[in-house]
Design a protein that fits this description.
Mean pLDDT: 86
Number of helices: 16
Number of strands: 17
Oligomer: single chain
Largest sheet: 8 strands, parallel
Strand content: 15-25%
Length: 440
């Protein structure tokens, strides 16, 4: 890529204008929008990069090359870190090479250039990088987004930037939760790993199809280990079903509504960064999870020889990794729709349920009934993660009871009634007694 840039440096777009700033360094204008300050671009870029430095990051992904000022500042402030520069147009980089000596950047082995010029490429790149790497710091200057004329590209990049800003806002909350929660747990998940070989589990999520399978779950009690995500908990309680454990992961205050007003002795399996009020409130056994990709968790787990859990980005994907590591031979998805039922997002009694209005769905997915229904970008990502996890776990049999939910490769649809009938001849198991035995 670097050689290609040098060969074509004179062929840049006419939409790019290079001007001299008031302080002397060049500045850049593209599609009538300035990427840098017209007064002192170097000073402004330096301040911006200072605000983006993350000592815990092991890689920086910078969107927009411009005249190379952001990369130069990153190289100076983080000389040992890998820097991936993503741009949507090679022409901008060629213009910079034509006007500025960029030898230091182009010869730096830590700097990699990638050109991605359509939304699908960008989404796929981000998805793969998130799955393959940890501790990535995304840097997306708003001024660079403004220079993009393609509305679809701009929408994707705005979405990434919003998520990154949300993560920064969450960072302090997660740290506070973590410091509180590591003082409150009774045991960690390592005590349960591999202890349930040959047994069967149901992962109960909060999708709309959960309402269709309530009677099935009643029949599976004491046959299957019922692990319920927090958002599905009050749906089960409304129908007088007590799961064998609840799993929770969200750091925000709103997640407390999932357990507020409930007194239960079942185990709470929770991420170390979950909302601290949930852990303080819970009266049953508290089993902590330390997640990959969050440095304080990784450090604590390493110091105390505790196995890490992959979260996959959601509470249901977290629960799936927990069940696999516990050793279950069969895992059945309930309420794992990853799609909307009409305009319904979750089970009717779920604390997360909301009504959605669609003029025209942005994303659709094929269901087990071979129709296409509306879904969300995040659900598409979770589905891909689940499918990869299933592919990596050939010894476990997976089933999916959501007929109108998203088709999940590797987890064929099986009617809930069929699973209930098959369970009638299974031996009864008191899973709470088993867990108490293992965590002592």
């Amino acid at each position: 890529m670097k050689q290609q840039l040098l060969m074509n440096r004179y062929n840049y777009s006419k939409d790019i204008e290079i001007e001299t700033s008031k302080k002397g360094p060049l500045t850049l204008k593209k599609n009538n929008h300035y990427l840098y300050s017209r007064y002192d671009p170097i000073r402004d870029v330096s301040k911006f990069i200072d605000s983006q430095i993350d000592p815990l990051a092991n890689m920086y992904c910078l969107f927009g090359f411009g005249l190379g000022y952001h990369v130069e500042q990153l190289m100076a402030k983080e000389p040992s870190k890998k820097i991936i520069v993503i741009d949507t147009d090679i022409s901008t980089i060629q213009a910079a090479i034509h006007h500025i000596d960029l030898t230091d950047i182009l010869s730096n082995e830590n700097v990699q250039f990638i050109i991605l010029n359509n939304p699908i490429q960008i989404q796929e790149f981000i998805r793969n990088l998130d799955l393959d790497s940890s501790n990535i710091k995304w840097i997306i200057p708003q001024s660079w987004i403004s220079t993009i004329s393609n509305s679809s590209l701009k929408e994707i990049l705005e979405d990434i930037k919003i998520k990154e800003m949300s993560f920064l806002r969450m960072k302090n909350i997660m740290e506070e939760n973590f410091q509180n929660n590591i003082q409150l747990f009774d045991s960690h998940i390592g005590s349960l790993l591999g202890q349930f070989e040959g047994k069967k589990a149901a992962l109960v999520a909060a999708g709309p199809s959960l309402d269709d399978n309530i009677d099935v779950l009643k029949q599976l009690k004491n046959k299957y280990f019922l692990l319920c995500v927090g958002a599905a908990y009050k749906t089960l309680l409304h129908h007088n079903i007590e799961p064998d454990a609840i799993v929770m992961s969200d750091p925000h205050d709103l997640v407390f509504e999932q357990v507020k007003g409930v007194s239960s002795q079942i185990p709470l399996i929770f991420l170390a960064t979950v909302n601290k009020e949930v852990v303080r409130y819970w009266s049953g056994t508290k089993i902590i999870l330390f997640q990959e990709g969050y440095p304080p968790s990784e450090q604590f787990a390493k110091e105390h020889q505790i196995p890490l859990i992959q979260t996959g980005g959601s509470v249901a994907t977290t629960g799936l990794d927990v069940l696999i590591k516990m050793g279950f031979a069969e895992i059945v998805f309930f309420g794992q729709d990853l799609a909307y039922k009409g305009n319904q997002s979750h089970s009717i009694y779920s604390t997360s349920n909301k009504t959605i209005s669609f003029n025209q769905p942005t994303f659709t997915v094929e269901t087990n009934s071979h129709e296409r229904v509306a879904t969300s970008r995040s659900w598409l990502i979770f589905r891909k993660w689940i499918e990869q996890k299933i592919q990596q776990t050939p010894k476990v049999q997976f089933k999916n009871t959501s007929y109108n939910g998203a088709l999940i490769k590797g987890a064929p649809y099986v009617a809930g009634e069929h699973i209930a009938n098959s369970a009638k001849n299974m031996e009864d198991i008191n899973f709470l007694d088993l867990i108490s035995k293992f965590i002592k």
